[in-house]
Write a structure and sequence with these properties.
By secondary structure, the chain is mostly helical. The chain has four helices and four strands; from the N terminus they run αββββααα. The radius of gyration is 19 Å and the shape is globular.
């Protein structure tokens, strides 16, 4: 998931995706009264029971709805394009590895999430990383 206001992502590898797992992730990483934007997969149907608002777009053949303006303000706020873009970025990140073992996939996903959520690479960040590795950085 990715927050529209915060811009922060939470990615998690789930062995067996199910409604119960989805509900756990939503409850753990969203606040009550949040709006969750999804497609129409039936696993999302009970999100309102978790005190989350739920708005969907329908990608089904014949409808092919990608974004919708529900409140009439001219902004198509109902979409899941932000997350679709995040998945495209993850696939691009993984492509040079030419396949990743499922045993290590979580580690790669965590690294991508960390990079996505990183606001900027600063001298302080690099010093902190290198200090943990036992090295130093020359910033001149």
């Amino acid at each position: 998931m990715v927050g529209r206001d915060s811009g922060r992502a939470h990615l998690e590898v789930i062995d067996r995706p199910s409604r119960a797992e989805l509900e756990r992730v939503v409850e753990d990483h969203t606040a009550p009264d949040s709006v969750v934007y999804t497609d129409e997969w039936c696993g999302y149907a009970r999100l309102p029971e978790l005190d989350r608002h739920h708005a969907t777009v329908c990608h089904s053949p014949g409808v092919r709805e990608w974004a919708r303006d529900d409140d009439g303000d001219g902004v198509r706020e109902v979409h899941c394009n932000t997350l679709e873009g995040l998945w495209a970025g993850l696939r691009t990140f993984l492509r040079p590895f030419r396949g990743v073992s499922k045993w290590y996939l979580s580690g790669y996903v965590v690294m991508f999430e960390w990079g996505y959520n990183l606001a900027a690479v600063t001298d302080e960040l690099l010093r902190g990383i290198l200090a943990r590795m036992g090295g130093t950085v020359n910033t001149t």
